[in-house]
Amino acid sequence: MKQKQLFTSLKLKKNIKQVFNDGIPVKSKYINAKFLTAESPSFSAMNILWAVPKKIKSSVLRNRLKRVAKAALFNSLKDKEDYNLEKTGLQIAVILRPEFENLPFEKRVLEFDFLINQILSKKKIFAKE
After folding, report:
1. Which residue did the predictor score with more confidence, 33 or 44?
2. Is the pLDDT of residue 96 over 80?
3. Cβ contacts of residue 28 below 8 Å, gap of 6+?
4. Which of 18, 50, 51, 125 has the most C-beta neighbours closer than 10 Å?
5. At 1, is the pLDDT very low, low, confident or very high (cuts 50, 70, 90)?
6. Is residue 92's pLDDT more than 80?
């Protein structure tokens, strides 16, 4: 069964620079992130950039961590469907710390829950619909 598309990749260099330069930082124990909201959120999907440090030498492991992180974020966002986050125009750069690879899946989901709650508390524009 195909998953509902809640987010897409952040790809444009201009947008990536803008998120890193002007973004609001959010941190958890195993994840750092910066986020911005788009100018016209009603038309823009949530865009996410995934970054894993080169300290994890194997590209296979780095890519696996990105896949697992996407799944954990998807599970975390399923609980927050009333916020309609996929239409907020959020642009998020997610930087996974090397310790993230040793976490069990449930703990990874909790880390993303914490991160999303921090984003929601920092931006008062999100209201339940």
Report:
1. 33
2. yes
3. 111, 114, 115, 118
4. 50
5. very low
6. yes
Angstrom distance (rounded) from CA 78 to CA 110:
13
Q: Which residue, 82, 79, 76, 83, is CA-closest to 113?
A: 76
Rg of the chain (C-alpha set): 14
Residue 13 lies in a domain: yes
Please report which helix (H) or strand (E) contains residue 9, including its range: strand 8-9
Domain with residue 79: its CATH number is 3.30.230.10
Yes or no: say if 68 and 112 are a contact pair by the CB < 8 Å rule: no
pLDDT at residue 107 tops 70: yes
Into how many domains does the chain fold?
A: 1
CA neighbor of 24 nearest in space, from 98, 105, 119: 119
Instruction: Please check whether residue 12 lies inside any domain of the structure.
Output: yes
Give me the residues paired with residue 96 across strands. 31
User: Residue 11 is encoded by which pair of tokens?
Assistant: 């790809």
- Answer yes or no: is 18 within a domain: yes
Contacts of 113 (CB under 8 A, 6+ apart): 76, 79
Query: Domain span at residue 49?
Result: 8-122
